[in-house]
């Protein structure tokens, strides 16, 4: 059996990122000068901190940009649903004030359904949040202990339930809430 050359085997073991190492190719313009394409960042660059004298508009824009950068899409979807529930509850309340509340049970049922669903969605958002609370230390996050729940048999990290179980609880609570609301209309 013939041995492979050492240079060939060493070169095959090392991997170099080809696309990251090469600069973008230069292009020639019509006048003959060489121009390189400008590289634009994929996300807009924002200031990392605000000054104490920032205007309210700058603060709002900064908070909105941080929200868009740091928030996962699942959490944004839950936030959008919560905004929709606030709009629905507000419309029901304004209608009740302007047009009257003759079927008062129907108003109470619809408004309580919107408020109750908002509370359940907020609970789901808190349980499925991927970011640790603001007061939590980073060392505590690394030393989490895992236990097995005696009733369900699922793996639990320091009292935190899995996202699947949180969603199942959300669906179960929503069914109970809307069952009571439909029953209360009559």
TrEMBL record:
Q: Cite the record's Low complexity compositional bias ranges.
A: 7-21
Q: Which GO terms describe its biological process?
A: protein N-linked glycosylation
**What cellular component terms from Gene Ontology apply here?**
oligosaccharyltransferase complex
Q: Where is the composition biased (Polar residues)?
A: 31-52
The pathway this protein participates in, as annotated, is: Protein modification; protein glycosylation
Q: Which Pfam families match?
A: DAD (PF02109)
Q: Which InterPro entries match?
A: DAD/Ost2
Main localisation: endoplasmic reticulum
Q: Where is this region: Disordered?
A: 1-52
Q: Where in the cell is it found?
A: Endoplasmic reticulum membrane
Annotated membrane-spanning segments are 76-100
Q: How does the protein's chain sit in the membrane according to the entry?
A: Multi-pass membrane protein
Q: Which UniProt keywords apply?
A: Endoplasmic reticulum, Membrane, Transmembrane, Transmembrane helix
Give the family this protein belongs to, as stated in its UniProt record: Belongs to the DAD/OST2 family.
Task of the protein? Subunit of the oligosaccharyl transferase (OST) complex that catalyzes the initial transfer of a defined glycan (Glc(3)Man(9)GlcNAc(2) in eukaryotes) from the lipid carrier dolichol-pyrophosphate to an asparagine residue within an Asn-X-Ser/Thr consensus motif in nascent polypeptide chains, the first step in protein N-glycosylation. N-glycosylation occurs cotranslationally and the complex associates with the Sec61 complex at the channel-forming translocon complex that mediates protein translocation across the endoplasmic reticulum (ER). All subunits are required for a maximal enzyme activity.
Q: How does it assemble?
A: Component of the oligosaccharyltransferase (OST) complex.
Q: What is this protein called?
A: Dolichyl-diphosphooligosaccharide--protein glycosyltransferase subunit OST2
Q: Which organism is it from?
A: Knufia peltigerae
Q: Name the gene.
A: OST2
